[in-house]
Amino acid sequence: MRPVIPYVTAALLFGLGVYGVLRRRNAVLVLMAVELMLNAVNLILVTADTTARAVLPHGGQVFALFVIVLAAAEIGVGLAIVLQLYRMRASVAVDEIPLAERHAGEAGGDAGEPVSATTSGGASRAAGVEPEGLR
User: Fold this and answer.
1) What is the distance between the alpha carbons of residues 9 and 127, in angstroms, rounded to a whole number?
2) Are 25 and 94 in contact (CB under 8 A)?
3) Which of 2, 71, 112, 113 is the most exposed place for a label (fewest CB within 10 A)?
4) How far apart are CA 97 and CA 89, in angstroms?
């Protein structure tokens, strides 16, 4: 068997998955791209197992099963996060996810807007002192 065809196919699948992770805004499509990358790794593991019989018999197939279990757990957790995000925001766009939460003492702005790195705590703003980065 020529291992070039499965390796090239796996490389194309992995590249397509990386492109999907980097360019997609929808969280469900990002999860699908991650699954595509994991399946490309499975193809490489099984192909390497059949072409190069190493010290461990069927080692690549065993690792592929571990990757399948990992992918199933990732999909379960990922879909739970996406469903919760949809319930809170009515959107699954990745670029609209707030990465920092606001504290109750901070004033101004939208509640869903992330806190920028240039603002300091709410106490200095309440005292009328502007942070150095905003002068």
Assistant:
1) 61
2) yes
3) 2
4) 9
Q: How far apart are CA 85 and CA 91, in angstroms?
A: 7
Establish how many alpha carbons lie within 13 A of residue 110's alpha carbon, considering only the half-sphere containing its beta carbon: 5
Beta-bridge mates of residue 93: 26
- pLDDT tens digit sequence for 31-68: 889 999 999 999 988 888 888 776 667 777 888 888 88
DSSP designation for 130: P
Phi-psi region of 58 (alpha: psi -120 to 50; beta: other; left: phi over 0): left
> Is the sign of the CA dihedral 26, 27, 28, 30 positive or negative?
positive
Report if pTM > 0.90: no
Which has the closest alpha carbon to 109: 95, 125, 93? Answer: 125
